[in-house]
Amino acid sequence: MAAVHTHEETGVRGDVMRDLTRRVQAEYAEMPGLSVTLAQAQRLLAIDEPTCALVFRSLIKRGLLRRTPQGRYVRG
Q: Which DSSP helix (H) or strand (E) runs through 6?
């Protein structure tokens, strides 16, 4: 049986993180002007704050998103 990897900060499994990351990327691809706060993203994705923050930090690190001074996440 394959090992299940979890993210230490949130306990979220690696495959779940990949799926959420892909889902966020798809949302921004479908709506290039999308601009959401972390709280709005949590509601959109129906996930908890730590997981949502982790997903968005990952996408920022990869240069796919950026956080505006107003706290909104937009395409990088």
A: none
